[in-house]
Amino acid sequence: MNNCRVSGKPLNLINDFGDQPLGNGFIENKDINKEYFYKMRTGFCEVSKMFQLIEQPEPEQMFHDNYAFFSSTSNYMKEHFKDFHSFVSNSGYLSENPFVVEIGCNDGILIKNFKDNNTSHLGIEPSSNVARIAKELGVNILEKFFDVECSNYVRKEYGSADAILAANVICHIPNILELAKGVKNLLKPSGVMIFEEPYLGDVIKKTSYDQIYDEHVFLFSAISVQYLFNKVGMELIDLIPQKTHGGSMRYVLAHKNYYEIKSSVNEIINNEIEQGLDKLETFQKFNQNVIDSKKQLLKLLEELKLNGKKVVGYAATSKSTTILNYCGISTNLIEHIYDTTPLKIGKLTPGTHIPLRDHRYFKDDMPEYAVLFAWNHADEIIEKEQSFLNNGGKWIFFVPSVKIL
Ligand code: SAH
Ligand code: TYD
């Protein structure tokens, strides 16, 4: 695919990250000979202003009954999604007895709050292992990929929705026009779509290129989201920046001309124009920053290695797959990565094959330096691992710049 998934026009090549494995493809030693790789490159469309992957694996290769990302690992995110529930409930957009649908509900972290408040709800989740956890919490689940066909099915079986919610999933859906058509189809005339995703403005500002991996087919700006939903007769009515995942944006959309448009929409779109999110040059500069960031991280890790320091990684995020493979970091520079996810522990990182250890051994192993791959959860992790700093340990960050804390 060398054309934009939204406008159909040719893409301008921005980054080339070389061959990359699946971001969440944590692998057992016995399987490393059959590991899957694809060419990870990004492109920018000057018509839709959409920043996107040029090629990516099929959704079924990434989302299945052994999906490695469990939303509820972060206590901070659990609180965040309680607030998201309150935001939706108090938004004034819902009818008296609303029906709320969530796309990509994972283990139920958000939709569970609607269930707990006896709101009629449905979570749509194709990865059956995480969907099972949500079901066990009593959440109503449909194990499907959301698309137009799915939207027809839900409308027929459950009725139209007051609100369609999503977090960190709309950017995962390659056939995004189909997604937008499905949303339009399933919403009541007064219905709203409220979703949040890592924000392109933050990625560009912080050179957080680890947000680019197979699952993130797109990194959205308000300008590109407006262009996309305009194609199906919808418009942005509100925008609310979020702190999560290193900087996200919450987008509120409705059928055209139904609701008043809040001032946030123009303000944020004007900021984006000022930042140059609509200009090719901004992305070309971003690519240079990515190359510089890689050089700086490698320089630091190589120096530490030469000085005989013990360096590990903390949190085997899917984002870390991009960093490790692009920079060529393996056990030559990082001994282990510590993580809380049972499904990952004992496996190896995708492509670079660094062993994953249970986070409970982090303190006992007494590393001198730890690269914090979940820099987006820094406050939560640094607080939890206070004794690491107290014992002279040092955290290494690479976003927004390479530095030692
Ligand atoms: N909303 C959660 C999960 C994000 S991970 C959170 O913010 O933490 C993305 C989730 O979306 C995965 O569980 C994946 O299985 C699911 N997903 C991917 N494509 C989807 C699609 N087309 N329709 C519905 N869910 C999808
Ligand atoms: P996140 O940044 O949400 O993931 P991703 O980049 O994969 O979308 O981080 C989730 C990963 O971080 C998951 O493997 C668990 C790990 N983690 C810890 O090990 N400890 C923690 O305290 C937190 C919050 C996450």
Notes on the structure:
The chain is of the alpha/beta class. The protein has two domains: about 60-280, Vaccinia Virus protein VP39 (Rossmann fold), CATH 3.40.50.150; about 300-405, Rossmann fold (3-Layer(aba) Sandwich), CATH 3.40.50. It is about 35% helix and about 20% strand. It is built from 14 helices and 17 strands. The strands form three sheets. It has a seven-stranded mixed beta sheet with strand order 6-5-4-7-8-11-10. Strands 14-13-12-15-16-17 form a six-stranded mixed beta sheet. Helix 5 packs parallel to helix 6. The two termini are about 40 Å apart. The model has no long low-confidence stretch (mean pLDDT about 95). The chain binds S-adenosyl-L-homocysteine (SAH) and thymidine-5'-diphosphate. Thymidine-5'-diphosphate (TYD) binds near residues 69, 319, 344, 374 and 380.
Essential attributes:
7-stranded mixed β-sheet, alpha/beta, Rossmann fold, binds thymidine-5'-diphosphate, 405 residues, 6-stranded mixed β-sheet, single chain, 22% strand, 17 strands, binds S-adenosyl-L-homocysteine, 2 domains
Q: Could you give a quick summary of the protein structure above?
A:
Helix content is 34%, strand content 22%. The chain is of the alpha/beta class. 49% of the residues are buried.
Total number of helices: 14
How many domains? The number is 2
CATH level 3 topology of the largest domain: Rossmann fold
Strand order of the largest sheet: 6-5-4-7-8-11-10
Question: What is the count of β-strands?
Answer: 17
What is the C-alpha radius of gyration, as a whole number of Å?
21 Å
CATH H level, superfamily name of the largest domain: Vaccinia Virus protein VP39
| Main pleated sheet | 7 strands, mixed
CATH architecture classification of the largest domain = 3-Layer(aba) Sandwich
Low-pLDDT runs: none
What is the distance, rounded to the nearest whole angstrom, between the alpha carbons of the first and last residues? 41 Å
Shape: globular
Helix and strand composition category:
alpha/beta
Strand residue content: 15-25%
Class of the largest domain in CATH?
Alpha Beta
In helices, the fraction of residues equals 25-40%
Bound molecules: S-adenosyl-L-homocysteine, thymidine-5'-diphosphate
Query: Taking all residues together, what is the mean pLDDT?
Result: 97
